[in-house]
TrEMBL record:
Residues covered by the DUF4232 domain: 44-187
Annotated signal peptide: 1-25
Name of the protein: DUF4232 domain-containing protein
InterPro entries: DUF4232
Length: 189
């Protein structure tokens, strides 16, 4: 009888070990997916910088739109002064809009007329500028509305589109009215 008890005990111990090891075994996880190829939205342009539209403010006909330049390249990027801008219609054609440095008498906004200072952006760093205009319509002309922007961060730098992002699903809607004047602030941190 002692053999029967010993066999039963070992059988119990072995089956308990099998159940315990089955419960604590770590399942084999699938290998993580390989990194996807960069998409147009995440790929860094050849220029080494990306410019995206930020929040806009509109009050009593005054419009202010922020633009953020990010150095997504691998080298320092120098800025000194004002960006060059083109306001584009729905077909991508430039509107006849005057882009003036500073506030251009459109409104008095703190810091907008501050003189430019040289900036060096290291990879990952950003600089900002703002655009200012009024949606004023007079009897002298038809109102103009731009749906996108093209920017050259400085004289002699390549032109590139400003990324509108998800907050502007219908385009940037730059309603410069019939005055056709846009003020641009110097690049700043």
């Amino acid at each position: 009888m002692r053999e029967d008890v010993a066999v039963k005990r070992w059988g119990f111990v072995l089956s308990s070990l099998l159940v315990t090891s089955a419960c604590t075994a770590v399942p084999e996880l699938p290998a993580p997916p390989s990194s996807p190829e960069p998409t147009v939205a995440t790929a860094c342009p050849e220029s080494g910088v990306r410019v995206a539209a930020g929040p806009s403010e509109a009050a009593t006909g005054l419009r202010v739109l922020g633009l953020r330049l990010t150095n997504c390249g691998e080298r320092p990027y120098d800025l000194d002064g004002y960006p060059l801008l083109r306001v584009l219609d729905t077909d991508g054609e430039p509107l006849k809009v005057e882009v003036a440095r500073g506030s251009a008498g459109i409104a008095t906004v703190e810091g907008f007329d501050a003189p430019p200072e040289p900036l060096t952006l290291w990879p990952g760093e950003t600089a900002e500028t703002q655009l200012m205009w009024r949606n004023t319509v007079t009897g002298n002309g038809a109102p103009q509305v731009g749906e996108s922007l093209s920017i050259a961060p400085a004289e002699g730098r390549p032109w590139q589109p400003v990324e509108a992002g998800g907050q502007y699903p219908d385009g940037l809607h730059i309603d410069v009215g019939s005055t056709g004047t846009l003020g641009v602030r110097a690049w700043h941190r």
